[in-house]
Amino acid sequence: MKTVNDMVAWLKSPSHIKCTLVDISEVSVSGVPTTINLSSMAYSSGGTTYNACVIGGLSFSESLSVEGAISTSYGGLDLINTYGVNDQFLNYIWNRRSVKIYLGDPSWPKSDFVLIFDGLVQELTANSENQLTLLLFDKLQRLNDSLTEKTLSDSTDTYTEKTKTGLANTALLPLTFGEVFNIQPLYVDNGVTGIFGTAGTSGTSGTSGVTGKVYMVNDGPINGIIEVRDNGVPITAAENLSKGLIGLSSNPVGTITCSVQGNSTTSYSNTISSIITKIVTSYGNTTNQFTPSEIDFSGFTNTSPVGVYCSDRINTVQLCNDLAKSVSANLVCPSITVDATGQNISSSKLKLVELKVPSGTSQYTLNDDNMILGTLSITQLFPIKPSIKLGYCKNYTVQQTVAAGLNPDSKFDEDYLTVTQINSTNKTLYRDTGTISQENTLLITESHATTEAIKRLNLWGVQRKLITATYLPELIFVQLGDIVTIKSNRFNLSAGKTGLVYNITRDWITGQVQIGVLV
C-alpha cells in the first residue's frame, strides 16, 4: 500500500488518473450474503472484476462537538442507473453492511490502493431514475444498539423474582462500570432459596447466612461494595462479589441503596478509556462489537475516575459518549486512521479526542501556500464561559427524608455535588452577567472535577473561533484532533496560531480538503 507521501505526490501530479474501488461485504442478495465490488472505471484484480458504476460522491465529513453530541463522519457514493441498468440493487439489503473504499491509479495492483473510507452503509436511495446513492456513515454506528437486553427471565440462576404472577420477570439486569454512589440495586430474591451462596460481610471472607432480601448491583463480578444503607443508615450486609449480589440478614426498614466499585470482568478499572474499551468489546449486539485491534486510545491520557450505573435500557454509543464528555472528550471513529509515523494508512479505529487549550508540537502547518485562494473564513464563534460549574459524584437515589435520628448529608438529597471556577477578569471583560449553567459529569471525586472545571475555564473563558479554509492535497490526510499551526496574512494569523483540528471534509475527486481549526 502506498504511504501518505506517495499519495500526496500522486494527487499533486497533473498526469494522475483516479480509480475508486468499493468493497461492500455481506449484502443480502435474495437472502444470500454477497460481497459487492464496485468501481469508477473498468478494473480487475486477483480474479475479482469490479462493476464500473461509481460516478460521484467521495466527499466525506467528520466533526467534533463542543456540546458533547455524538460525533459522526458521513458521506455518499453515487452510482449510475441510466435505463435502470442497476435497478436490481434496490432489491438488495444494504443496511449496516461494512464498506471499504480505496483510491489509486488503474495501473496499480489493488495492494497499492489506499483506504479512504472504512465504515457502514446506511441505506440505498434513488433520487432520480438515472442515479442511485449509497449513504454511508462511520463504524461508530455499530454501537447504535442497546447496551444489554438481559432480564431476570434470562438469568440461569433461580431467583425467586424471576416469575411474578406466573409471568417472566422483564426487569433488566443492572450493569455498573467504575465507582457509583447511592444506587438502588435490583431486588432479585427473598433470601430463602440459598441462591446467595457463600459470602463475606463488609468485604471479609466467610459463610454468611442470608435470610433477608437479596439484591443485584451488577450482572457479573464486581470489585467491591463500599457501603450498604437502609433509608440512608449504613448497615452490615453480605456480599457475593462473583455474582454482583448483596444480601441482608433481615428485611429492610426502607429503601436499600449502596455505593459500589462495579464491573470487574477481566479486571476492574474506573477510567474512561478502560470502561469504554470493556463496553465496546463485550456488550451490546455481539455481531457489532469492536475487537481490540479496532481501538486506539493511545493518544488519550486523561485518567480521571468515573462511574455509571445502568439500570434501564440505554444506547451503547450514548453511554460511551456520556463517559467521554465528562472530560470534554469526543468518541470518534474517523473514516481513515494514519499511524503515529504519519505515513501508514489503515482501517478506521475508535479514538478519544479531548477538547482542551491547543498546545504541543504541531503536526502540520496550514498556510497561504497550501490554501485555496479566497476560502479562509471564521465559520463559528464559540460561546464564552468565564464561569464553569460542574456536577460530579452523581447521586442515583435522591432521598429527601431518611431514617429517624440520622442527620442527612446534603449528598443524599441532591442529584450531584458541584464545583465552580470563575475567571472574574474575563467575566468583567466580556460583560458576562448571566447565571452559571451546571454541566453534569460522571466524574467521582472533587479534585478531578475541579481539574476538569479549570481545564474548561481555560478553554472557554476567552473567545474561541473556528477558522476554516480549503487546502491542497498535501493536507488531505490531516486527522481530527491533530494539533496544527494555522498561518495566513489575514485574520491576524501572520505569526501563526496553534489550533486543534475540529472538523474535516475530504473531497477525493478534487483532492482538496476543507479543514476547520479551533483556535
What does this structure look like?
- The chain is mainly beta and 519 residues long.
- The chain folds into four domains: 4-138, no CATH class; 145-314, no CATH class; 356-382 and 464-518, Baseplate protein-like domain - beta roll fold (Phage tail proteins - horseshoe like beta roll fold), CATH 2.30.300.10; 387-460, no CATH class.
- It is built from five helices and 36 strands.
- The strands form eight sheets. The chain has a 15-stranded mixed β-sheet that branches. Strands 19-18-22-14-23 form a five-stranded antiparallel β-sheet, with no helix packed on it. It has a five-stranded antiparallel β-sheet with strand order 15-17-21-20-16, with no helix packed on it.
- A hairpin with a 2-residue loop joins strand 12 (163-164) and strand 13.
- Helix 2 packs antiparallel against helix 3.
- It is flat and about 85 Å long.
Q: Please give the largest β-sheet.
A: 15 strands, mixed
The gross shape turns out to be flat
Tell me the helix content.
under 10%
Number of strands: 36
Strand content: 35-45%
**Terminus-to-terminus distance:** 35 Å
Integer average pLDDT: 90
Provide the structure class: mainly beta
